[in-house]
Amino acid sequence: MIHPVIEVRNVHKSFKSVHAVKGISLKIDSGTFVALLGPNGAGKTTLVEMIEGIQKPDEGEILILGKTWKDHEHELRRMIGLSLQETRFIDKLRVTETLSLFASFFGIGTERVEEITHLVGLEEKKRAFVVNLSGGQRQRLALGISLLNRPKVLLLDEPTTGLDPNARREIWDILLKLKQQSGTSMILTTHYMEEAEQLCDYIIIIDKGEILKEGTIDQMLSTEDGEKYIEFTLNNPPKSLPSVTELKTTIEWNQAENKGKFSITHIDGYLPLFFNYLEKNGLHLKDLEIRRPTLDDLFTKLTGRHLDE
Amino acid sequence: MNNYFQKSQLYQLTRAHFMELIREPGVLFWGIVFPILMSLGLGVAFTQKTDVVRKVAVIENTKGDKSFSNLDSLFSFRAQKVNTPSPDSFSYSITLPDEQLGNTTFLFRKTNWDEAMLMLKRGKINLILEENNGKTEYHFDPLNPDAQLSYIKLSGVLENKEIQPVKSRPVIKALTLTGTRYIDFLVPGLIAMGVMMSCMWGISYGIIERRSKKLLRRMVATPMKKSYFLLSLIAVRFLMNFIESGLLLLFAWMVFGINIQGNLMALIAIFMAGNFAFAGIAIFASSYTANTEVGNGLINVVVMPMMVLSGVFFSYHNFPDWAITWIQKLPLTMLADGVRSIFNEGAGFAEMYLPVAILTTVGLIFFSLGLKFFRWH
Q: Is A113 helix (H, G, I), strand (E, B) or coil?
């Protein structure tokens, strides 16, 4: 019998008065990259730390390759790789020394340390003290540590939070390379929808301890009625937009950014109506973009909030 | 062989902790240089025979009493005018020469009551003289031993009962033998204190800091053996303590000629037992909290009372008897007394086996309690 790599069955976890995870179940197959997407405080870290065996669920069961943490802790520790949301390694230890230290926990020698240094692009920094690394370099070190043991299961908790776009892109490149090369399965938590879209095959949107929606990116974003989003800016932005009855939709108007947004189902039918509306109200279009829905649109639709709120 | 070490958890953990320590210049200063400076400072201050200066305020006679008083005669015949008195300084002085006990110089300042009281409150003087109906009155706090001594010496001079300068009194035999000086008392105390401080701050703070940085959590999410982690942390401390104490001892031997009169192996035994006791207490103190400020408090709760009570700098025998019974049961007292008796009294294993056994047991108890509550996450 082939087990899913990770199986979570009806897991609950509470902290004092907060019910952080409310009966989540999920299955992840071998070689799949999965994103747990949700805003801060959604319960992503709690869920992923229970999968990592760092926290124990109050209720429910977690199986990794068919094995439980209770009975196979040592074995599972050898098989998984992880990076926590925030870890500060020993300040006055060099990059190579830090990698060697963690390598020794798995009984791994120097060769793999060299390999990893190369993989995460820290060759030039290998003699640098951890304290002198930039945020992106530290995250790459943490990622390198998580990959030392060639893990079958990789669990990354917000690996790019707080990084600038360049540093984020470097982490993505490492992970995309890994995806092509090995049969590792990965769960990554994030509140950046681009990250989920770029890296993952399967996306689970979670909020307030529950799964709101899950599927591949195409499944999530394809809608039967061909819904599209229109975003526009105006040359003469008013304080508030006059109401639009003919469009059968509401326009979300952000005065500070001079930006309007609404969704329509049939572009050819609705777009002329929109132009009429602008003309009738003396509004002059500066910019117009028609795009398919994003994960953030989906999240907003489901919760009324944005992912980064 | 090289690769074997490379892959050994214990080697890598010990190496990492050791590197972290020696790469921090502050650690080397506070661990090695500071105790040596302290022994130098205190050792010199308490072993050098220097002149003692005692300052006294004299209340000026404002009643118009013309009779020739004791004090007047003192200032007219015995005392010397200080050559260059600044506005605030004392204008008369009397020096009592004494080869054996060191010279004592009294400095006098004529002033009024208000100013005399202010000087007393500020600790500039501890004795006030006043002439009342031809009699000299001494005002001082009878509980202050320093003031008492000033009174005894000065009243001797004023009443002409002063023991005339004697070149050498046959009754006073100065103790200058090694083992009886203050420095001989101090250095073993400093060694014991060093062990306590190093274990408590090094191990406890190290663990709490790693927990607050989530490093502990990250480490136990690997197949790392938890016992190796603690063992390596303790081993590095033991090594540092050996180096620190060794250097302090070397310094004290070279500068003050301190030597170990008792059994060296017994000294190593009590030293190890002390290290073990404090390592255990350190693990216990740091077993739960992830907050470095709480950790600070916890460490101070352990360290401060023993610093004050256990007789590191001065003997605890001045405390009341009921307290001494308890003080002698403190781990730092046991360690300091044990090291001291080997240094100065020539003690050996026979005197050491009980404190060694107790300190080891203390270490074991706290170590196991600490592990029971230990929070890795």
A: helix
Q: pLDDT over 70 for what percent of chain B?
A: 89
Classify residue B80 by burial, with Cβ atoms within 10 Å: 0-12, 13-18, 19+: exposed
pLDDT in tens, B219-231: 999 999 988 999 9
Looking at the complex, does the CB of residue B292 fall below 8 Å from at least one CB of chain A? Answer: no
A108-122, A168-182, B82-96: least confident range:
B82-96
Residue B104 CA to residue B56 CA, distance in Å, equals 13
Reported as a single tens digit per residue, the pLDDT across A204-217 is 999 999 999 999 98
Give me the pLDDT at residue A264, please.
Answer: 83
pLDDT of residue A187: 95
A-facing residues of B in 218-237 (CB < 8 A) are 218-219, 221-224
Pairing of strands B104-111, B52-59: parallel
- Shortest distance between the Cα of A149 and any Cα of chain B, in A, equals 10
Cβ-based neighbours of A133, under 8 Å, separated by 6 or more: A95, A125, A141
> Helix, strand, or coil here: A285?
strand
- Nearest Cβ partner for B20 among A86, A88, A93: A93
CA distances from B294 to A269, B261, B360, B376 (A): 67, 42, 27, 17
Residue B166 has pLDDT above 60, yes or no: no
Helix B331-344 to helix B292-309 angle, to the nearest 10 degrees?
Answer: 50
Q: SS3 helix, strand, coil % of chain A, rounded to 5?
A: 35, 30, 35
The DSSP string of B86-136 is: -TTS--EEEEE--TTT--EEEEEEEE-HHHHHHHHHTTS-SEEEEEETTEE
Nearest CA distance, B293 vs chain A (angstrom)? 18
Residue type, B24: E
Strand A228-234 relative to strand A285-291: parallel, antiparallel, unpaired? antiparallel
Opening angle at CA A113, ends B229 and A54, nearest 5: 45
Tokens 């196979």 label which residue?
A72
Q: What amino acid occupies position B30?
A: W
Mean pLDDT of A220-246: 81
Q: Is the minimum CB–CB distance between B213 and chain A shorter than 8 Å?
A: yes
